[in-house]
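Z., the sequence and structure:
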Amino acid sequence: MNQLTRFCLLSAALGVACVCGVSQTADAAAQKPGVVAWRAIGPGQFGAMFGIGISPHDSKIIVAGGDMGLAFMTRDGGQHWEMLGRSGAKEFANPGYRGVWAVCFDPRRPERIFIGSTHGLFRTTDGGRNWRLVLGGDADYVMSAIACDPKDSDIIYAGSGMGARMNVDWSRGKVWKSTNGGESWQEITPPGLTGRRNWVTIAADAQSPFTPGQGHSRVYLCGQGGLFVTEDAGQSWNSLARSLPGGEINLAREGPYDSGASTVVLAPGANQSRLFITLKARRAGDQLVGGVYRSDDGGKTWVESNRGLEKAVAYLARPQSEFPYSLLVGCRARPEVMYWANYPQGVFRTDDGGATWRPLLDLKTDYVRAPDFDGKEVDWLLRGHGGNFDRSYFNAYGPANGLSCSATDPDAVAYTDNAGLALSVDGGKGWTEPGFDYGEAYRPNQFGDRPPIRLTHKVRSRGLHLIVPTCVAVDPSDPKTIAIGHQDVGLVISRDGGNWWEWAWHGILEGEKNNIYTVLYDPAVRGRLWTGGGGWRGSGHVYQSDDSGRTFRRIGIPQSSLEAGQKERDLFLLDLALDPASPPEARTLYAGTSCGLFRTTNSGASWQAVSPGDVPSPRVKHLQVDPTRPARLYASVQAQAQSANGLYGSEDGGQHWKRLGEGKIGSVRSLSLCERTGTLYVLGDSQPAGGYFAHHTLWRSDDHGETWARLDERLAACVGVHPRDPDRVYLAAWAADVSREKVNVYRSADGGKSWTPIADNIPLTLGGEDNAVVFDRADPARFFVLHSSGAFEAIDPAPARKP
């Protein structure tokens, strides 16, 4: 039985799809000999989502996306979600690449949808199956404001920015217009606007004069760049900022999560459209400014519309408020219905055109003060019975990132926040978080009689994958047991091959359990694994489990092992490596941390610092022990002195070190070692080191780092070499400009001389430092690619070279 057949049979037995590309169903192309089969795995929920849109043609159709780089669509009201786009199209077609900031449905053509991403504007003309970049390419085109003319939807406006919450230095505040459905564009940026600008809303006024081919004459443009109106369809612009309550200060940038006036909504008026706007909350002397304002004269004068919002606006205006903005949307079919969202009070609704508002969210959660595993009292955020949510993953309402209401159904409303999205189909009476399901309890009655929460119950993704993974490992004694570490969510473990997941948290301290950066199984001891990470409240430790991750205990790194200067900063555990020749009862482990490299030879009873060279307190991100000679160790170093960055090798377990590839390998992006031969592959910074989008050089060494061969210099994120075949290597590449560069996973069967793309049918988003290619050591035909929005499991049926 070949590997592909085995994978499909295993997946069928587990009740999950064999391949996850554009959808969760099997991809016929992946059945061909030699074609890699891909499947998205992980718990899915708790990633930040931003752009969201509900179709005006069918409120069960929703498009949404996260900040890290994927877009999703549901066609059945959230029961199932599919990833949009793919990496291997003739023209790059991942509409969510590196962030989804806006979604716009064509009001007249159900099959046409626009998505504003970090690299520009994408369009589908077949209901989401195929996508095309129609404006942009590089990050200068980050897009958050999109609007179609209400009478002629071939007339489209687009403005750069990252939505109401985010400010970015590299958004240039440009505005474009298309009169042919997005085929071509003309820049119509208001004159005099240069530098950092962040547009949030564009709205064409349906009660203004209409000219065929040009659209309605009156268009509003709003965001950190200002509040503008055009009366000639974008040929000239006038500022309305001074007429706002409090004046132009409403538009000033005062923090990372402050884009000034954010959201404009138009509603029919007696003679001309009513204009609603949200302003950030602040104190102007004795006056409280913020919330919702209405203008009946095109923005010349304004009336406050905050009845029912007073307490929320006052809370947002506090000096310590991190998110002073709010969002506003309306329903075209029922313009008297609008929704307003803020943090932390949630979502409000008006049924009388803004005259009065009422709150809609009731999560029914509370903090329970109880001891953590070290005896310290901590607050556990738990969900109770009641409320109007049928499920919640995080049990809290996060910063308001996106808000959408159906243009035809006033009761269909959805918002995005840092935990995903929530949806109501009855006007806010009841809510669901439709991205996941709760399953059976794995820690029943841990907190008494409470509804399912992630602390106690397994979760399963419905197709959304939003979380940033940092590490992955397969239990060598059970191929169905997979552990994935994440930022913000921590360590999750599946025991059924990747369908249901449980949070592996029991025994890991508060402040550390939510950020796990490394996980390692012991190949000689069934059920034993090590993990760790760190957080904002103290130092990271190494944790050991002897029951397959159900409980953990601390084994280091103790603060006593740190030098005086190191103790002043938090310790983050970044990588672990095992000496396989050490006895099971006294394991030798290496721990790479933000404060150096440490070693234990007695399973964590004591630790000693063994950092490379004379570099003080280096950041050690990557570790490799050479199984052909276990005393041989490789470590990457990042130091305050950039000249010390690079790859170091030791032949005696870390007692002495030698700089490897000096003058060639700069800061190490990715490190991989062939376990059979000791062959090394390293992605290092190009010389001289560049910025965020700097290309990296791929190097190979067959003599333990003495000499190096240059293989590739594309913009690559991570590399992985087959554990048993030194010439089978995988390279994940990303793009600074998606109109010119390819995003894909490439395979070489000849040691890097030639490359073949193998991930054409999945949408990848790469570029994070935790991107990785990781193999199932027991079955290297199975490997994992960690990208910035989740993990893909792959089966490569092509035979590797025999040992």
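Confidence is low (pLDDT under 50) at residues 1-31. The chain is about 0% helix and 35% strand.

Let me know what you think.
H.
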